[in-house]
Prior knowledge:
By secondary structure, the chain is mostly helical. Helices cover 64% and strands 3% of the residues.
Amino acid sequence: xxxxxxxxxxxxxxxxxxxxxxxxxxxxxxxxxxxxxxxxxxxxxxxxxxxxxxxxxxxxxxxxxxxxxxxxxxxxxxxxxxxxxxxxxxxxxxxxxxxxxxxxxxxxxxxxxxxxxxxxxxxxxxxxxxxxxx
Length: 134
């Protein structure tokens, strides 16, 4: 292991293993690479210099940040879309069961699409609200 002198300490604590120091700094930073770390004996702050990252790492880091910002919105959109589509399907099946399969399809084919997009998902909502004793 390579020996380094990271601070102003003297005596037996003057030289430390590079790998041991890096592990200790990692433990102190706890995943936050911008956190400041100082020597516990002499209080000298360690200056940590990272190697230059190539363009591939920069692009991957940028993609990671974009994905981490977009994922909550995408997950919420998928969840809302799934609930909406389930309600539309349940409403359509309910219409076909109430008036009959063929007649229900005829009614929905002749209806205004905007009315179907708004009306069909309200059917399960109203059925659930109808079960509540007000």
